[in-house]
Amino acid sequence: MTKINAPPPQHSTSQQTASFTRFDTSDLSPREIYKLLIGTVVPRPIAWVTTLSPDGVANAAPYSFFNCLSADPPILALGVENWADMSFKDTAYNIRMTEEFTVNIVSNALVEAMNVTATPFSSHIDELEKAGLTTAPGSLIQCPRIAEAPVAFECRRHVGISVGKSREIILGLVVAIHIRSNLVDRERFHVDQLALDAVGRMGGQGYALTRQLFDLPTMSVADWDAGNIPKRSVTSS
Ligand SMILES: Cc1cc2nc3c(=O)[nH]c(=O)nc-3n(C[C@H](O)[C@H](O)[C@H](O)COP(=O)(O)O)c2cc1C
């Protein structure tokens, strides 16, 4: 891939002297805090979570309160809210009952299918079927993955942290990783992120694409002292 130098965006004086609007979270409703958080912590990766109900019905739903929090041990985290009547979402219920789940990564081509699986269908409905998706069996867990998804992480429930009356953070231990072979160099463990074409979640109902990439190497202190300040290089546009 050709690398070209790209100028960094200019910081204007008005930005440096900008005033800030301060919010004290104790003055805000949970909904107001939610809107500020999801509007600013962006873009968020999306976990497209598949689970199996205790009766064996496959379930899928997107969760953007999601990230990888540790590589050793490999831990992924999901933030799941209850429904307004405090009942569990199918994802939370199924994970609690089966102690397994799979996180699939959403590529640009799959966003509309993902959106179908966000519909609050009742728990006996297979959302994957509704979205026209197919599943592939898990290798170490019973829970299937989405065959069309470019990446899937098979997880065993590690721990659930109840952080409020309607919110649980679920940590999953990754036991197997599936990556479409054309996306990964299996000797160097390098993933082609341009080809992965993952989608992120913005505020409201917004999404972001991830194909405007640039590199910016981290400096050593010696680089800094010597004035070797790296410049960003565009790897795609
Ligand atoms: C992109 C996207 C991200 C979402 N992120 C979350 C989230 O982080 N936490 C949550 O509780 N619901 C989230 N939702 C809503 C759930 O996907 C939705 O309530 C879904 O119907 C739950 O399905 P389930 O009952 O099958 O688990 C999100 C929806 C979308 C479209």
What topology emerges from the helices and strands here?
Blueprint: E1 4-5, H1 13-16, H2 30-40, E2 44-45, E3 47-52, E4 58-63, E5 66-71, E6 74-81, H3 90-98, E7 100-105, H4 111-117, H5 127-130, E8 135-136, E9 145-146, E10 151-164, E11 167-179, E12 184-185, E13 190-191, H6 193-196, E14 199-201, E15 207-209, E16 214-215, H7 221-226, E17 233-234
Antiparallel strand pairs: 1-17, 2-14, 3-4, 3-7, 5-6, 6-11, 7-10, 8-9, 10-11, 12-13, 14-15, 16-17
The protein binds flavin mononucleotide.
Flavin mononucleotide (FMN) is lined by residues 46, 59, 61-65, 79-81, 89-91, 118, 120, 201.
Main attributes of the structure:
237 residues; alpha+beta; Pnp Oxidase, Chain A; 7-stranded antiparallel β-sheet; 3-stranded antiparallel β-sheet; globular; binds flavin mononucleotide
Structural description of this entry:
With 237 residues, this protein is of the alpha+beta class. It has a single domain, classed as Pnp Oxidase, Chain A (Roll). The protein contains seven helices and 17 strands. It has a seven-stranded antiparallel beta sheet, sandwiched between helices. It has a three-stranded antiparallel beta sheet with strand order 1-17-16, with no helix packed on it. Strand 12 and strand 13 form a beta hairpin. The longest helix is centred in the first third of the chain and has 11 residues. The model has no long low-confidence stretch (mean pLDDT 94). The chain binds flavin mononucleotide. Flavin mononucleotide (FMN) binds next to strand 4, strand 6 and helix 3.
